[in-house]
Design goal:
The chain has 26 helices and ten strands. The chain is α+β, with helices and mostly antiparallel strands and 680 residues long.
């Protein structure tokens, strides 16, 4: 699944004039001019040809410091904050009993907000599973124990999931993938630079502190348990694929029979595990990383049982810490919020509880959100703009001079097969069977995780449901799914600053249109292009076209590898290639669609001192305005396939001759690349 932005994110909406503003959505900002641009965000002391991002966003950055409870603050986050306010109102009404039809989400929220009950329990909710772990005398008891932990959302050793079969996208099969690491990425365990070593030491201290909190262990024993956790996780990390390698579908697709999996990791009884976890009879499955499972097997053979018990206890605490008493929450936040991201303050409890309900009961909550914040007409309007961007991509593909006709016809067939999902699901999930007990926050957490896990298990062996969503309706994000060949735009992002009915068409094309184009081009990036229109992993490229693609891709890799978010910290051009290509292609498609629209015409006026084309480019740039903490910047550079906002702007416009013409940029200006990068 390819997202517009990792973790917290957004996508945009349609063109102006004909499009209806979403019912209940936020109004344009106070600085909005006649065009809909945020004029107060612009720093007119900056030459747009020298640094377009600073020109479009500089004043916004200066007037929008990062809140204490955030690692970054941007236009995406502003919209997320507004959506959280809407969701909070829904949940507080439901919790107070004013909306009987929404008792389930109300009870879930009220339980999460009941600090008194949570504090009185302390770490007691963990004691039953701790007793099971303590009784583990050998690896024979692991299959049933891991099955129960996985059902409760505890990430230990590996992950079991359900996914479309890469070889037959009509059917869902089981998949086993790497897992069980507490640090954000395998590189944190294997790099030997001073920063990584220092962070590992801080992680050891964090694990020891939570171990002491959970079990009352003295400092020496807690430190010994932390060291055992590090030994186990390092062994797993050494066998895990890096993020760039995982971008290749072929490297994470190894279809096996259940018997072959058993032979791959014979120390673990897979049949017993599958039965206990609630999976149907599994004959074939996708083993994402065979070498990782070999390392898992080696651990079961060689690691002392005390190390395995310490590792399991740690991950139980780690998974549950956010829903336990305040001392657990504070220590979890200290490492994952303050150390890793530089965040100074824990978000208020109500925000954490809103997000927890969205995670556990996303469709029930999303339905209420849609009623308040998404007008019925907006869905049809979004589809209209998607159609215009798709038409622009079709014209572009037909005109590519580097693509042969055989590949071109396959590409067009795939484009025509893309399914568009706008706003919310056609059919909401029925989660009423999930037991939510008012006052039992930790129990609700476990039952919700088990309920969703079982839902995934129930998909195995059944036809793929292309109507299914993997994001909830209030989510501030969008995504493309290669196995399903769908583009998906939740209602949560179909609001200003990404779309406004009162904005000029050029601004909406620059913001919403570029995001639509971004998602569409993911179907043809280094990952998406390996799947055909049915979602099957198949090489449909003529060899000369594949070589031409790789040559053009190398241009983007080199361009973005030269960008440094912080001095001495460079982006990984290979990791970020897919998103960078999508940003570049998305804005270009938005421009082509706008120029072909009636809205542009010959009489489109200047507004707010900008020509139509200038407004389109500023509209694009302003959705990426943001400020980031240095710690967060370092974390993202290692783990995130998306570039920071300023490079998503400057890296793109410097590749567009139309931008240079719109702002009369001279040759040699920083926003004029001597050799532009282009795929679409």
């Amino acid at each position: 699944m390819r997202r517009l932005l990792a973790a917290s994110s957004v996508v945009a909406l349609p063109l102006a004039g004909a499009l209806l503003f979403a019912q209940g959505a936020a109004a344009p900002s106070e600085g909005a001019g006649r065009s809909g641009l945020d004029l107060n965000a612009i720093d007119r002391s900056v030459d747009p040809c020298s640094d377009f991002y600073a020109f479009a966003c500089g004043a916004w950055q200066a007037s929008h410091p990062i809140p204490a409870d955030r690692p970054r603050w941007g236009r995406f986050d502003e919209l997320q904050e507004r959506n959280l306010d809407i969701l909070r109102a829904v949940l507080e009404a439901a919790a107070a009993g004013r909306d009987a039809a929404r008792r389930q989400i109300g009870d879930s929220y009220a339980s999460c907000m009941d600090e008194g009950a949570i504090e009185r329990l302390g770490g007691a909710p963990l004691e039953p599973v701790f007793r099971r772990i303590a009784a583990l005398s050998g690896t024979d008891g692991l299959p049933s124990l891991l099955a129960d932990l996985h059902r409760a959302g505890v990430n230990t050793f590996f992950r079991l999931g359900a996914e479309p079969d890469f070889e037959d996208a009509r059917t869902v099969i089981a998949s086993v993938d790497q897992g069980g690491l507490g640090l954000p990425d395998r590189d944190y365990y294997v790099r030997d630079d001073p920063g990584s070593a220092a962070l590992r030491q801080q992680y050891l201290e964090h694990v020891a502190r939570l171990a002491a909190l959970a079990g009352g262990a003295p400092a020496a024993r807690a430190a010994a348990e932390a060291a055992a956790v590090m030994r186990v996780e390092t062994a797993l990390a050494n066998a895990a694929l890096d993020r760039v390698s995982r971008r290749s579908p072929a490297k994470v697709h190894h279809k096996m029979t259940a018997a072959q999996l058993q032979a791959l990791a014979p120390r673990f009884e897979w049949t017993a595990y599958f039965a206990r976890v609630g999976a149907p009879a599994i004959r074939t499955l996708d083993v994402r990383e065979p070498e990782f499972l070999k390392a898992f097997n080696d651990l079961l053979v060689a690691a002392p049982i005390e190390d395995l018990r310490a590792y399991l206890r740690w991950h139980v605490v780690h998974a549950h810490a956010p829903i336990l008493a305040s001392e657990f929450v504070a220590e979890h936040f200290r490492f994952y919020g303050a150390v890793l991201q530089g965040v100074a303050q824990l978000p208020p409890r109500w925000k954490r509880c809103v997000q927890a309900v969205d995670e556990d009961l996303g469709d029930a909550l999303g339905r209420a959100f849609v009623e308040r914040a998404f007008g019925a007409r907006a869905k049809a309007d979004m589809l209209a703009l998607v159609g215009r961007i798709e038409a622009a991509l079709e014209r572009d593909i037909r005109g590519l001079d580097w693509m042969t006709d055989a590949t071109r016809q396959e590409a067009l067939a795939k484009l025509h097969a893309v399914a568009e999902k706008i706003g919310y699901p056609d059919r909401w999930r029925d989660d009423r069977a999930l037991e939510i007990v008012r006052g039992d926050a930790a129990g609700n957490w476990d039952r919700a995780k088990a309920f969703e896990f079982q839902r995934q298990m129930d998909r195995i062996g059944k036809p793929v449901d292309r109507r299914e969503w993997t994001m909830t309706a209030p989510t501030v994000n969008a995504y493309y799914s290669a196995p399903q060949n769908t583009i998906n735009f939740p209602a949560g992002i179909l609001q200003p600053p990404f779309y406004s009915a009162s904005a000029d068409p050029a601004v909406n094309y620059g913001a919403a249109g570029a995001v639509i184009g971004h998602e569409l081009t993911h179907g043809f990036d280094d990952q998406g292009r390996q799947f055909d229109g049915s979602g099957r992993l198949r090489d449909w490229w003529w060899p000369s076209d594949a070589r031409a693609f790789e040559e053009r891709a190398a241009c983007f890799v080199d361009e973005y590898a030269a960008f440094q978010p912080l001095e001495g910290l460079a982006l990984d051009g290979r990791l970020t290639f897919g998103e960078n290509a999508a940003d570049n292609g998305g804005l270009r498609l938005a421009l082509l669609a706008y120029l072909a629209s009636e809205a542009r015409g010959s009489a489109a006026p200047d507004l707010d001192g900008f020509t139509p084309e200038q407004r389109l480019f500023v509209g694009y740039a302003q959705i990426w305005c943001e400020n980031r903490r240095p710690e967060y910047e370092r974390l993202q550079a290692r783990t995130n396939p998306h570039a920071p906002g300023r490079f998503r702007v400057n890296g793109v416009v410097s590749n567009l001759p139309a931008f240079q013409a719109a702002f009369s940029c001279r040759a040699g200006a920083p926003m004029v690349r001597p050799a532009v990068c282009r795929l679409w």
